[in-house]
Amino acid sequence: MTTTWLKERSELGVSVGLVVLGVLVLTDALSIPTDFAQRGPVGPKAVPILVGSLLLIVAVLLARDVLRGGKGEAEGGEDIDLAAPADLRTVLVLCGAFLANAALIGLVGFPISGAILFWGAAYALGSRNLGRDPLIAAGLSVTTFLIFDNLLGVPLPGGPLMEVF
Amino acid sequence: MLQQLIDGFGTALTPTHIAMAAIGVLLGTAIGVLPGIGPAMAVALLLPVTYGLEPTGAFIMFAGIYYGGMFGGSTTSILLNTPGESAAVVAAIDGNPMARQGRGAQALAAAAIGHFVGGILGTIALVVLAPVIAKHAVDIGAPDLFAIMVLAFIAVTSVLGGSRIRGVASLLIGLTIGLVGLDEMTGQQRLTFGSLHLADGVDVVIVAVALFAVGESLWVAAHLRRTALQAIPVGRPWLSRADLKRTWKPWLRGPLIGFPFGAVPAGGAEIPTFLSYVTEKRLSKHKDEFGKGAIEGVAGPEATASASAAGTLVSMLTLGLPTTAVAAVMLAAFQQYGIQPGPLLFERESSLVWGLIASLFVGLTLLLVLNLPLAPLWAKLLRIPRPYLYAGILFFASVGAYAVNADIFDLLVMFVIGLIGFAMRRYGLPVLPAIIGVILGPAAEQQMRRALQLSDGSLSGLVNTPFAIVVYVIILGIVFFPVLKRFLPSRPAEAEPKDKVDV
Questions:
Q1: Residue A40: is its pLDDT beyond 50?
Q2: Best of A23, A56, A75 to disrupt the B interface by mutation (most B CBs within 10 Å)?
Q3: Segments making up each domain of chain A, as ranges
Q4: What is the value of pTM for the model shown?
């Protein structure tokens, strides 16, 4: 009973998250020193304290709503099939592709890390065309790099690959 | 004013700016047609170009995306029966049955011309009203601005969406993100946890891209439809004389409903497009066709949607008040340039504002000229493989976030906020209040502290102007409306329209 009970009310996790956030905001606010010259009657603490307190209140109200049977409606969309159960594996691989880019961009440069991101994400989402996928990934990545670097003047790290040119 | 508008056309009609408008319109339409991407995400993903472009060109492009995105969204509604964005929900009710009966071309034409008419009328209203509002608003002070922002917070959490408490939760998440960084008045660190990266605050571009693009991609990934929906093939849009006879009045009526709704906080296009639909149904001689393919049901709401976009721009430009997600992201773009939209914008950035307004006329004309012949091509976009689409969104989101400061830390921040966006979609927390909180939160705090400084800490400093009092009365009305409704005698509201319909 307990696991299904919890599963149906997993939204309570949102309440927990809001409490954590509220406590974080409040403790941070209370640690702000106010001893030195404060301009105006309201210092830097007031708004964080307000926001933090409201977070705690909303967390409680939300928990009450969930326990009374309230439910947040999951967002629909064109490509979203809410009837199917959540596919967390896809999400995890997607996160992996995203973080791989963050980890690699400084080492191998954007043209390579970006291509890995695109290919990895497409793979996670079910694309298995081993000829076309990497080609599109590489083409997109290099084109984007060149546009940003040359046309828009926004530098992206080229990495060792671009030093060849 | 006329002179300024003519000068504006001088700015808008330079080759570069016409090109920017065309790019914006095409990009906006393509993006609106593409499933999963709405205009807000489109502008968010393009925010990084603000680092490379001058402001006028960038905003001309953004405005083109806004209008183009609205049109593209209705194309998806009509051909796929699943609206790409909330403004296009109503277009599906009659547009899709029309397409299934082989009248997709007429539905698209009614939508395209409706967007043109609605956009033009809305923009004319913008030209007339915005300078007047700006002139009166120049005198408003810190308490008034704070009141308006509070109104925006309350309206966005109360009016939209099914659950107030979830709206407030979303707003607070946004406000918390907005708190990160140095306090603007004293320079003290808040929520930075000693990190130098966080001392500058979280860049609005990163928050917007994370919530809209990353959150959405992850959410779609969790529930990706394995069998893609089938789009109905369509030819070049056209209207017969009989169609025109049925559509011209809805086109003209739509803007009357759409424009005012676009201008008020949390108005957006959802409510007015629906109202327009109901109105057209009541006024139509073909009531029995509604829901089965009545062309009025496409024409009216589409004109309404574009006019509401113009109304949105009025509050965004004159008061710095974003009423929709797109406006919120555009406001973020203004902040990137260090330009503060508001009453003074029309004085300080006159050529930018009027160039932008003039370019709306240019963009709408381009939209009509390009979209009628291109419609079959747009319909093909609906067949893009979904893995590429969402991989592409994540790809460009990463490029955008990294380009802000060339800092990997930003990618990690975006990832975390993207996960928050994912959870919000899972548990029905609306995204719009969060983004409004991030963008308006810091400004609201400053105005409040400034107002209290003037009044020496007395809370009366927040309500010492007639304008502010009026705004707070409206806020109280919104907050207590559900409570009041309970005590009011239940009027037979349902009976009223029925009698009037059968005239």
A1: yes
A2: A75
A3: 2-67, 88-163
A4: 0.84
